[in-house]
Structures are given as structure tokens and as C-alpha cells.
Specification:
Layout (H helix, E strand, L loop, with lengths): L10 H7 L6 E6 L4 E5 L1 H7 L12 H4 L8 H11 L3 E10 L6 E13 L5 E10 L1 H21 L4 H15 L4 E7 L5 E6 L5 H7 L2 E2 L5 H9 L3 E3 L12 H7 L3 E8 L5 E9 L7 H29 L1 H23 L5 H10 L6 E8 L2 E9 L5 H9 L9 H8 L3 E3 L6 H4 L4 E11 L2 E11 L6 H38 L10 E8 L10 E8 L3 E9 L4 H17 L6 H13 L9 E10 L3 E9 L5 E3 L5 E2 L19 E6 L3 E5 L1 H4 L10 H10 L7 H16 L7 E8 L4
Helix pairs in contact: 5-6, 5-10, 6-10, 10-11, 11-12, 11-16, 12-16, 17-18, 20-21
Organism: Streptacidiphilus cavernicola
Keywords: Hydrolase
Protein name: SpoIIE family protein phosphatase
Length: 724
């Protein structure tokens, strides 16, 4: 018989779990740190693609740039000393010199031990937090600029602050803003705090044309112009000496376009060495070009206010509407409910009817309809049932396909013409985030509410402002679904058919379910018509809890057929937990039982390791706890475990729960507790359906807590039901 430690789940099982997870995962072996396994996210991060030939090579050959950054020394230390290493927001340069990319990671290095406790290698797990870090910094700096804009700070101050904010976020960047002069033919100085004065003076008043550096060409083309090497690009032929004198080697420039499509100027980002356009810099360019557009437009509006007070009042009102509506939409934490709120807020402020369609899985789906309160109820019902059409075959489809707004100067076909309303036009504006159009906001116009330029501009600005929040929420929901899917992978897809018994189980994650929980259960066959049953709770949440859960489940399944008693199985699981280098944090509570049908019911042999006690509800409604307490696993090499043997008679039920049920709280903070659980079970006297008993438990918990839980909840019900 194999020793229990030999049967612990191996690293390949752990690697398989991370194969498609949104984290970087790699297994390194031996003192040379040979790359013996990695997931797709790891290969994508180092920029080499999924090349199997890299496996088996030292990590210093696979990612040589790690050497001079001291990261291989950290791996050496973990392999040498056996102590885990954890870092947060660590800077890492990936890629060869001159083409390297600065990324930020939360990562851990943990020693991987064999059954004898000897270090075999190192496990690397990391999360790329570059975008989150940049997004936080960008949002903070943008908020300051928006506050300046909102309080009518001078345009020069806003643009100068914008350039300094960009250079603070990306220290290697030099930024500038050029403004369109009144003639519309030249660009004049707006802001460039870090460029030399002689350079700013030389390009002040530079012409717009097809070969006028990055900025003049971007203004001419009305599109972003990327020059990654000024010295070799023909666009810079007339400015090459000036650029050399200023020490500038790369420049990409974006036109600043108003909400009405007018050219306002250009925004440029310079580098002192040749550079390829990076995604981070593209994000900066997109966000701050729009910020510059907002600042310039606000400045023009202020100038217009001096000429026409009434026009300024209308603009301020519109801006307030956009800000208030965008804030209200952003406060809705769920998708597509935030788009539904957007539609409701657009009516009647922008028009009597608003619908929102999104592209999901290649199909157009209507997610929101709002109509003015004075319109018939059938209007909303008709529009909600409308099929938006195929991609590219309708105004909505064309906007989704091309990303550009469209105005139809007649009543759209289909239900729109059946509404009995004097509809005169329809405008469809894209919902675009990070360059991807995922939805369309459509407004209808009637004879008494025509679509003027102001309404269209407001709709476009509202869509632009709300799109980022809606897309972020959608991705948040996708992450929650991913966490739930990963959790489902740790649970049984379906409970097996156990002879003489009926089973029912439930698992409910805490909060929004963004993290993988540590609660689990399992039922599996054993030799000799026996069945194994386990329910447990792993300390912590997330990827580490998932690996511990997999370790416990796989160890139980592996050793149970080979060991004589449930106590021996629990001890083998305990040995597997202690064999991990960080076993001090691998605490697990569980109940492990072995079941077999007998003439009288279900014979049960059970051990309880620090887990909440099971409850045995007899057919007459009496409730007892058949299992004495035991010590939780992962703490001591010799846990105190007591074997309990009993029978679940025909019509009796055995109920096992995790502490998330017993510790569920009402609004006053009172625990649900064992006695309330027992009361819920007594009320099921005579019930022989496992699902009904499970529903009675979960309903009682929900009634007590109001449906809110701050901890994962798992429950498993077994009812003895002998064949007649």
C-alpha cells in the first residue's frame, strides 16, 4: 500500500486548473529552473506564443530579461531556502532591450516539494495589474482635470496640467498640445511643459499638410499618426534637424476632435528613443485626447457665453445633464441594468423614445427600452419585442459594424411605424469603449421634438461617457461568471446515484462571487459497494483556496479505495496538506464518511475534523448530531479524530453544512446557528425528498438573513430510501 503522502495531488493537476485561468502560471524544476509547465497567459505575457519547444529550457533562456532585474535571484532564493516570496505591483521589463515593455504584477514564488519534503522546483503564479494600476492613476489624474474644467479654469492651465499628468503617469513621455488657429490652416502652441522652449517656438504656427511631421499630418488626415523613428520617417524630413537638436526620436500624434466633428488641435506624445506604439500609451492618448477636447470645447463655450449668455446657459445645462446621467449610470453595479437606467434617463430629456441594443455572440440583442410617460403602454411592448436586424443590415447594425453614428430622417421600418406616433427621424449613436463598439443608443424624434444638432451632440456625449462604465461592468460580470465557472469545476457537475439513498446539494458563493470560494463537497464510489462522501471548507478564497480544494478532493478520491477507515483517509489528507511548504495556512475543516446500503438503511462510518456537526433527522422529526468533534486538518501531524458509526434508517435524513450557513447573520448581527437549523429540519418530519429538505434549509437561512450572505454556503442532504 502506498503511503498517503505519495498519493497527494501532483503539480500537473494544479497546472491543469490554471490552463485557461486569467492568471500567469508556470512550473520551474531543478536548480536550473527548467520551465516544465505554463499556461497560455504566461506565454502571452512574455510575448513568445504557445511554443512547446520552450518547455524543458531554463527560465533564463526563455525570459533572459529577468536576469538583470534580479528576478532569477528571487527564484534561486526560494529554491535554496524553501521560503515563499510574495510581491505586489512589482515592475518587470519584458522583451529585449529597445523593445521592452514595462508591466506590473502581483506575484508569488512558492517552493514545490516532493513526498520526502525535498524541494523539486518553484511554482510561479502572477496577476498582471498593469492596466489596473494605469487605470487608477489615469482616473485620478483625469478627475483632477475634469474638476478644473468644471470650475472653468483657464484653458492654458488645464492643458498644462494635462501634459504634466501624462508625464507623471508615463515618465518617459514628453507631451504637447497644439491648437487650431482661427484660419484653420495652422497649429499654434497650446501646452508642452517639458519640451525645449526653442522647439515650442519653432513649431508654433506650423502648417497643416500631408508631410508636416506627426502633428501637422495628423491634423491633415484627421487620424492618429505614429512615427516610431523620426530619423527615418519621411514625414519629418523638414523637421529632422529640429528634432535632433531637441533630442526627440519618436512621436505619435492624435487629432483633437470636438463632439460635433470639428478639428480643435492635436495631442502629441514624444520619446527620446525610437519606440513602437504601446497599448498603455494608446490608452493615454485616447483618454487625454478626449479630455483635451472637453477642455477646449469648454473653453470655446466660455468664450461663446461672453457673446451669448443664453447659449452658455444651455451648454451648462447640457453638461450637467451628461455628468449627472453618467454618474447615475455608473452607480448601477450590474449589466445590463446600467444600460436600462441610461435609457430611462435619456427620456424625455433627449426625446420621447430611447432604445439600446448590444452585440452579444454575433447577434444583436435589445436590452433597454424607455418611453415618455404620456405615450401608450403598447409602445414599450412593441419596441421591446422588435428584432433589431442583422449586423450591417439596419441603422443599428451599420453603427455596430462601423462604429460611426447614423441619422435616419424618416420613421424606421417595422414596429416604429406601427406606433401611431408622428416619428420624423431616428439617431443611432455608438456605445464604444477602448475602440470597440458593443452597443447602440437610438433616439426617436417627433414633430414636436425634432432632432437638432444639440440633441445629437448630447446623445453622442452621453453614449461616450456611459460606454466605459457599462463595458467595465460587463467585464466585471464576466469575471464573476468565470469565478463561478471555476468554482463549478471544483464541485460535482451532478450528484451520483447512491443505492438506497437520495442526495441533494447546493452551493452559493458570498457577495458577487468574484473570488473562488473554499467550500466544497464530493461523493464517489468505493470498492465493495461502499461510497465516499466529503464536505469541507478551505481557509481563504481565490486561486490558493482552489488549489487546496483540488488537493483535498483528489487526495480523498485517491487514498479512500486503499485505506481501511475514514480516519485513515482524513489523516492522509492532513499529511498532504502538511507536505505543502505553506501548510501553516492550508487549514481545512471537513467531514468524511463512508456509506453502504444495508437491510435497515444506510450504514455510515464518519469522522469530523473541525467541521460544523452534521444533523441526523429521524423520520419522526427528532434531530440529533451523531458525530463528535475532531481537530481541523493542516495544523498538526497527529490530529485528534474520532470515528463514529451509525445507521440512517429508511426515511431518515443526514444533513451536512458548511459554517457559512450556521454563521449567516440577520440585520442585527445574530448568527443563524445550529438550533435554527435543527428547527428547520424538525419542520420536515415525514418528508422523504432530499431536495425538499434542502430547500427548507436554504429558505430558512434566506428568511433569517434577508437573502444576503457574506460567506460561501454549501449544504448536502442524504435521505435513506430503501426499495420496497
Amino acid at each position: 500500500m502506498k503511503r498517503p503522502a505519495d498519493l497527494a495531488a501532483g503539480p500537473d493537476l494544479v497546472a491543469d486548473m490554471f490552463a485557461h485561468a486569467p492568471v500567469l502560471f508556470a512550473l520551474l524544476s531543478g536548480p536550473e529552473h527548467l520551465l516544465t509547465g505554463a499556461n497560455d497567459a504566461f506565454f502571452e505575457a512574455i510575448g513568445v506564443g504557445r511554443d512547446r519547444r520552450l518547455l524543458g529550457r531554463p527560465i533564463v533562456e526563455v525570459v533572459p530579461e529577468l536576469v538583470h532585474q534580479g528576478l532569477t535571484g528571487l527564484v534561486d532564493g526560494v529554491y535554496r531556502d524553501g521560503a515563499p516570496f510574495v510581491a505586489h505591483t512589482a515592475e518587470v521589463l519584458l522583451g529585449p532591450t529597445g523593445k521592452s515593455r514595462l508591466r506590473y504584477f502581483d506575484f508569488s514564488l512558492e517552493p514545490r516539494l516532493d513526498q520526502t519534503g525535498q524541494i523539486q522546483g518553484v511554482v510561479f503564479v502572477a496577476v498582471d495589474v498593469t492596466r489596473q494600476r494605469a487605470a487608477h492613476k489615469m482616473a485620478a489624474e483625469q478627475q483632477v482635470l475634469l474638476e478644473q474644467i468644471a470650475r472653468d479654469a483657464p484653458l492654458a492651465e488645464v492643458l498644462d496640467g494635462m501634459c504634466r499628468a501624462i508625464e507623471k503617469i508615463s515618465p518617459k513621455v514628453l507631451s504637447s498640445v497644439l491648437l487650431l488657429d482661427p484660419s484653420g490652416q495652422r497649429l499654434v502652441h497650446g501646452a508642452a511643459p517639458s519640451l525645449p522652449d526653442f522647439y515650442n517656438e519653432a513649431i508654433d504656427g506650423s502648417p497643416i499638410g500631408p508631410v508636416e511631421g506627426s502633428c501637422g499630418t495628423a491634423a491633415y488626415r484627421r487620424e492618429m499618426v505614429v512615427v516610431d523613428d523620426i530619423a527615418t520617417d519621411p514625414l519629418w524630413a523638414s523637421y529632422l534637424d529640429l528634432a535632433k537638436r531637441a533630442g526627440l526620436a519618436a512621436c505619435w500624434s492624435s487629432p483633437i476632435i470636438s463632439s460635433s466633428g470639428e478639428l480643435l488641435g492635436t495631442f502629441a506624445m514624444y520619446h527620446r528613443t525610437p519606440q513602437l506604439l504601446r497599448e498603455d500609451d494608446l490608452d493615454l492618448s485616447i483618454v487625454f485626447t478626449r479630455t483635451a477636447a472637453l477642455a477646449i470645447e469648454r473653453h470655446r463655450a466660455e468664450q461663446a457665453r461672453r457673446r451669448a449668455h443664453e447659449s452658455e446657459q444651455a451648454l451648462s445645462s447640457d453638461l450637467a445633464f451628461v455628468l449627472e446621467t453618467s454618474t447615475a449610470v455608473s452607480e448601477e453595479a450590474h449589466y445590463p441594468q446600467n444600460l436600462q437606467r441610461l435609457a430611462r434617463l435619456a427620456v424625455p430629456a433627449l426625446g420621447p423614445v430611447c432604445v439600446i441594443d448590444v452585440l452579444e455572440g454575433g447577434r444583436i440583442r435589445r436590452v433597454a427600452v424607455a418611453v415618455a410617460p404620456n405615450l401608450p403602454e403598447r409602445v414599450e411592448a412593441l419596441l421591446a419585442a422588435e428584432e433589431p436586424g442583422r449586423l450591417g443590415a439596419s441603422p443599428v447594425g451599420r453603427v455596430l459594424a462601423g462604429g460611426a453614428g447614423e441619422t435616419v430622417t424618416s420613421a424606421p421600418p417595422g414596429p416604429w411605424q406601427e406606433l401611431g406616433l408622428p416619428i420624423t427621424a431616428q439617431v443611432c449613436v455608438p456605445l464604444t469603449a477602448r475602440g470597440h463598439t458593443f452597443g447602440v443608443l437610438s433616439l426617436a424624434a417627433t414633430a414636436d421634438r425634432p432632432l437638432d444638432d444639440r440633441t445629437i451632440a448630447l446623445a453622442e456625449e452621453l453614449a461616450r461617457t456611459a460606454a466605459a462604465g457599462a463595458e467595465t461592468t460587463r467585464q466585471h460580470d464576466q469575471r464573476a461568471r468565470l469565478a463561478r465557472d471555476l468554482q463549478a469545476g471544483l464541485l460535482l457537475a451532478a450528484l451520483p446515484e447512491v443505492p438506497g439513498a437520495q442526495l441533494a446539494a447546493s452551493y452559493r458563493p458570498a457577495g458577487e462571487g468574484l473570488d473562488i470560494g473554499g467550500d466544497f463537497y464530493d461523493v464517489f464510489p468505493l470498492p465493495g459497494d461502499w461510497w465516499g462522501l466529503v464536505i469541507g471548507d478551505v481557509c481563504g478564497r481565490g486561486a490558493y483556496a482552489a488549489t487546496t480544494t483540488a488537493l483535498v478532493r483528489n487526495t480523498a478520491r485517491a487514498v479512500a479505495p486503499l485505506l481501511a477507515t475514514p480516519s485513515a483517509v482524513a489523516e492522509a489528507i492532513n499529511d498532504a496538506l502538511l507536505a505543502r511548504a505553506d501548510g501553516g495556512e492550508s487549514f481545512v475543516t471537513l467531514i468524511y464518511a463512508e456509506l453502504r446500503r444495508t437491510r435497515d438503511g444506510i450504514a455510515v462510518s464518519m469522522v469530523r475534523a473541525g467541521h460544523p456537526p452534521p444533523l441526523l433527522r429521524r423520520a419522526d422529526g427528532t434531530v440529533s448530531s451523531p458525530s463528535p468533534a475532531g481537530q481541523l486538518l493542516g495544523v498538526s501531524s497527529d490530529p485528534e479524530l474520532v470515528l463514529e458509526v451509525f445507521t440512517v434508517d429508511d426515511g431518515d435524513s443526514l444533513v451536512l453544512v458548511t459554517d457559512g450557513i450556521l454563521e449567516a447573520r440577520d440585520p442585527a448581527g445574530t448568527f443563524f446557528g445550529e438550533e435554527r437549523l435543527a428547527e428547520a429540519l424538525r419542520a420536515t418530519a415525514g418528508v422523504t425528498d432530499a431536495q425538499q429538505i434542502l430547500d427548507a434549509v436554504t429558505d430558512a437561512v434566506d428568511a433569517f438573513t434577508g437573502g444576503f450572505t457574506d460567506d460561501d454556503q454549501a449544504a448536502l442532504v442524504l435521505v435513506a430510501r430503501q426499495l420496497r
